[in-house]
Amino acid sequence: xxxxxxxxxxxxxxxxxxxxxxxxxxxxxxxxxxxxxxxxxxxxxxxxxxxxxxxxxxxxxxxxxxxxxxxxxxxxxxxxxxxxxxxxxxxxxxxxxxxxxxxxxxxxxxxxxxxxxxxxxxxxxxxxxxxxxxxxxxxxxxxxxxxxxx
Length: 150
Fold this sequence. Notes:
The protein has helices spanning 2-41, 45-72, 87-118, 121-143.
């Protein structure tokens, strides 16, 4: 019995290490994002007291939605051969994907209105621009195989 447990743990070890690396990478990316936003937004102390709690709530909601999506594992990316599915199954996959996108958009709009009602619209605009430029820079860094650290 002990041998079975030991063998099972040995098989699980690579998956646990991979999950830890993914968590570390996510934390590293979020730290880079916060640093980038801090630099690009150049918020006053009062604006920062308003912005960061809203941003943190937003990230928490988006993270929960992404986690739910991953747990459901309903995505075209996870299906290797669509031809092996029934029409109803394909339709279900599409509708589920659209529902997740709709919920993501609803979260985005909710926090846009929170930011807009609490901060100057130009600051909100800077935030959205910074989010887009951060994504492009991050993709470029990882595409070149060398994420930079600050």
